[in-house]
Amino acid sequence: MEKRVYFRNKWLPYLLLAPQLAVTLVFFIWPAYEALSSSFFVQDAFTGAQRFVGLANFKSLLGSDTYLNSFKVTAVFTIATTFLTLAVSLYLAIKAHKVLRGSRLYQAILTWPYAVAPAAAGILWVFIFNPNVGLVSNWLEALGVNWNFNVHGPQAMTLMIIAAVWRQIAYNFLFFLAGLHAIPASLLEAAAIDGAGPVRRFWTVIFPLLAPTTFFLLVIDIVYSLFDTFGLIDAITQGGPGNSTNILVYQVYRTGFVGLNLGNSAAQSVILMGLVIILTIIQFRYIERRVNYQ
């Protein structure tokens, strides 16, 4: 039988919704509207004077090699970061789930990276991979690898992916570990009795039951790669060398705050917002169909 909740005061539901609606209005609807309206103007960064140019800002972006290159960089960075974050965090969660002694200690250690601020995490990885004094760079030099992420674009991208994955693993780890705790042990025991080995138990029992958690983290990790890695990029590479790590969100910053081209920067933010909306719709429309919530 369907159960409904009735409020004695007809204004109470609106009061309960008011804080969330206010946050959505102030931090999403209003900025989105301002970005959309600014994208049709050329604005002087010092006087604030505006001139309506229609779709000129968007047309200039389509003819910009730097901006089009940022799409390719973003695609590589997002796919690599999302896949590695999900894979590594799931592996660590499975290993931690099997630990009987000191499991709380392992879990605490694996969740610490998420508490590190992006800028601080970026500086940490810069020191570790510094071409002159970095510990890992010295090991690579001893192995004959010429490591200098300030010069070589692929090395800079590799470092950015490592740093981004390292910081996001903790968030994914917590959800995967909670999902593993929710799987009944009787299902795994039954599969083992039927002769299923560890690999087969994972693909036929564990992973399907973790599908809702995996789908949720897939959405979160894609958004993280597109937006929340700004601090890491700014601290480590500033989009270089040669725009090899210049993803879309950092290009918005460089155009608007460094180049002071506010209209063009607003147009980029609108395109980025549209891209995220399209990706989210695709995920919920096509990928979620394969997710079993029972």
Keywords:
single chain, 294 residues, mainly alpha, two-stranded antiparallel ribbon, 13 helices, 71% helix, 2% strand, globular, membrane, transmembrane, Sn-glycerol-3-phosphate ABC transporter permease UgpA, UgpAE/MalFG_permease, cell inner membrane
State the gist of this model:
Helix content is 71%, strand content 2%. It has 13 helices and two strands. The longest helix is centred in the first third of the chain and has 34 residues, at 65-98.
The strand order across the widest sheet is 1-2
Name the average pLDDT. 86
Share of β-strand residues? under 5%
Would you report the number of β strands? 2
CA-based shape: globular
Intertermini distance: 20 Å
Helix content: over 70%
Using the CA coordinates, give the radius of gyration.
23 Å
Query: Largest sheet at a glance?
Result: 2 strands, antiparallel
Order of SSEs: HEEHHHHHHHHHHHH
Weakly predicted, low-confidence segments = none
**Helices and strands: which structural class?**
mainly alpha
The number of helices is 13
Keywords: Cell inner membrane, Cell membrane, Membrane, Transmembrane, Transmembrane helix, Transport
Pfam family, one: BPD_transp_1
Main location: membrane
Subcellular location: Cell inner membrane; Cell membrane
